[in-house]
Amino acid sequence: MNHTPRFRTAVGGILLVVTLGTVATACGDPDAHPLSAQPYDAARQIAFNTETDGRKVDPDKPLEITAKGEGGRITDVTVTDDAGRFLAGELSADGVRWRSTAPLAAGARYTVRVSTEDEDGAPGVRVLTFETKPAERFLAAEFGPEAGTYGVGQPVTAKLSLAVKDEDARRTVERALKVTSRPAVEGSWYWVDDKTLHYRPREYWPSGATVTASSNLKGVKVTGQLYGGPSKPLELSIGDRIEAVTDAAAHTMVVKRNGEVINTIPVTTGKPGFDTRNGVKVVLGKESYVRMRSTSIGIAAGSSESYDLPVYWATRVTWSGEYVHAAPWSVGSHGAANVSHGCTGMSMANAKWFFETVRQGDIVSVVNSYGDMMTPFGNGFGEWNLSWEKWREGSALTGGTAEDTGPSAATARLRPVAL
C-alpha cells in the first residue's frame, strides 16, 4: 500500500500541504511541525507512518506546495538536491501555491525550505526533506583524452553511453557537460554524432592553462525514463604553444614555440596523386618506430607505387596514416621536391628533433598543397579548420556555452507569477 506523509503545522499561522508524486521517506520533524500531504492525483488524504515506510518519490511527478488557511501566504520556496542544484518552480501571485516547473532528479535527496507569513505579516519557515527513486536507465559521459599535459590544439571529447537524438535532450545533456579553464576562455561543444561531442575554445588554449571537464548530469532527466548517470571528471594541463607550418610549395617546415621560430626544416610532402592534406591538424600520438606498408592505404603489393619500409621518429596527425617522419631514402628531395605518398618526410636528425619537441595536441598545419582540406572529424582532430561561427552551429544550445548559463538556467528559483 502506498502512503504519503501527513502532518499538520501552523507555520506563520498557515497549514501547508506538500504534494508529491508518491510516498516519501520521513519529512522534517513531524513531532514538532506536523504537515499534511496528499498524492498528486488523489483527492483523499492518506495517513503516513514515518517510522516504518521507506518508499521514495517518483521523480516523474511534480512537487506542489499549497497554503491552506485564511489570510496567510507562501512568500518563498527553495528546493535543492544534494548536489546543490535548485529545482525551478512557480509561485502563484496570491502566494497560495508553489509548484515545480522542472523535472526532479532521480536518486536524489531534496531539501525544501518554505517561507510564509500570516495575515498580520508574521513570518514562518518550514524545512523538510524527501528522496526520489533511482533511475532504471542511465546516460553517462566519458571524457577524453586521458589526464596529462597536451598542446594548445587538443580538444576535449565526451563519449556518451547511449545515443541522444532528440534536440531537447541534447540541450539538457550539453548544459550539464561543463568545461572550464584557468585562465578562462570562450568555448563550445559540437555534436559530432549522436554519441560524441567535442569541445574547443574559440582560439587555441592559452599556454599554461588548466582545463577541467565535468558533468552535472547525474540524476537529471534527459528524456522519457532516461536519466543522467555519474561521470568521472577530467583535468588537463596545456603546455607551450608549439605550431609547425609546412609550406608544400616551398618544401619547408617552420616550427614555432610561443610565437618564436625555433627551427626551419627542409621537407618533402605528397607527390601528385598523393598530395598531402591542407589545413590544420593536431598531433594524435608518436611512435619511435612503425612499419609502413602501401597496402594499408590501398596500394597493391608489387605495384609501381608499393612500399614496405621501416620508419623512425613518426609523429601521427591523421588516423588514416599521415605522419611527420624520418625519410632518409628521399633526403636528396628534402627542401626541393615533393616525392612522398602523403606524409611529411625529413632527415633522421630533424625527425628525431621534431619527435622530441612536440606532444599530443600540438598544431601541425600544411599550406600550398594540391591536396584536399583536412576534414573536421573522422580522421583525427580537424576542428580548427572550422570558423568559430561554423563551430557554434554544432552546439545544441542557442548561442553556445559563452552566453548560456548552464544548469542554473534550467533550475533557478522563480519569483511569484500568476498561474
Automatic annotation (TrEMBL):
<keyword id="KW-0012">Acyltransferase</keyword>
<feature type="domain" description="L,D-TPase catalytic">
    <location>
        <begin position="242"/>
        <end position="367"/>
    </location>
</feature>
<dbReference type="InterPro" id="IPR041280">
    <property type="entry name" value="Big_10"/>
</dbReference>
<keyword id="KW-0808">Transferase</keyword>
<keyword id="KW-0573">Peptidoglycan synthesis</keyword>
<dbReference type="InterPro" id="IPR038063">
    <property type="entry name" value="Transpep_catalytic_dom"/>
</dbReference>
<feature type="active site" description="Nucleophile">
    <location>
        <position position="343"/>
    </location>
</feature>
<feature type="active site" description="Proton donor/acceptor">
    <location>
        <position position="325"/>
    </location>
</feature>
<keyword id="KW-0732">Signal</keyword>
<dbReference type="Pfam" id="PF03734">
    <property type="entry name" value="YkuD"/>
</dbReference>
<comment type="pathway">
    <text>Cell wall biogenesis; peptidoglycan biosynthesis.</text>
</comment>
<dbReference type="InterPro" id="IPR005490">
    <property type="entry name" value="LD_TPept_cat_dom"/>
</dbReference>
<dbReference type="Pfam" id="PF17964">
    <property type="entry name" value="Big_10"/>
</dbReference>
<keyword id="KW-0961">Cell wall biogenesis/degradation</keyword>
<protein>
    <submittedName>
        <fullName>Ig-like domain-containing protein</fullName>
    </submittedName>
</protein>
<dbReference type="InterPro" id="IPR050979">
    <property type="entry name" value="LD-transpeptidase"/>
</dbReference>
<keyword id="KW-0133">Cell shape</keyword>
<feature type="signal peptide">
    <location>
        <begin position="1"/>
        <end position="26"/>
    </location>
</feature>
